[in-house]
Amino acid sequence: MDRPIPRRARRVVLLAALTVALVLGLAPAAGAHHRSGPCDVHVLPGETVVHHSKELIRCAVRKWAVEGGAARAICIARRESGLIPTAESAGGDFLGLFQHMAAAWQDRYTSWTWPGWRLKDDALNGRSNTIVTIRMVHDGGWGPWGGLNC
């Protein structure tokens, strides 16, 4: 003969099952990671590189306002790299979304990032290139990226 399970025991079993489901359902997949620092904008399934680059730029401009806002920043990145973060000039002298001078990148990275953010020290990383650029422009204007059409 089956006996009914006491109400308290059902609650304990239900709570344990929910806890297991929560842990399994929300735990990051192996290899997934959370990056520290600003604009931890993950690539969405099916998202293009160009769209993701625009999202990074919009995020950075929300944190550090720049003349012309995100529209101008996106226009300049489009002009510089076609919004492709791994873009390099023919000779490799200019790198990334905003085409930083390769020779100046390390100093710019050191000056405009914070170690706790754990940004990649790579001008061809869209997030790092964007944050360095937008912070530079926030502080000093679009000088190095001046010019026409934006």
Please provide the ordered H/E string of secondary-structure elements.
Answer: HHHEEHH
Counting helices, strands and paired strands, the structural category is: mainly alpha
Q: Stretches where pLDDT falls below 50 for ≥5 residues?
A: 9-32
Shape: globular
For the biggest sheet, the summary is: 2 strands, antiparallel
User: What is the oligomeric state here?
Assistant: single chain
Helix percentage range: 40-55%
Strand residue percentage? under 5%
Count of helices?
Answer: 5
Strands, total number: 2
Radius of gyration over all CA atoms, rounded:
23 Å
Strand order of the largest sheet: 1-2
Mean pLDDT: 83
What is the rounded distance between the termini?
80 Å
Report on the structure:
This protein is mainly alpha-helical and 150 residues long. The chain has a domain at 49-145. It is built from five helices and two strands. A two-stranded antiparallel sheet has the order 1-2. Helix 2 (49-63) packs across helix 3 and helix 2 packs parallel to helix 5. It is globular and about 35 Å long. The model is unreliable at 9-32 (pLDDT under 50).
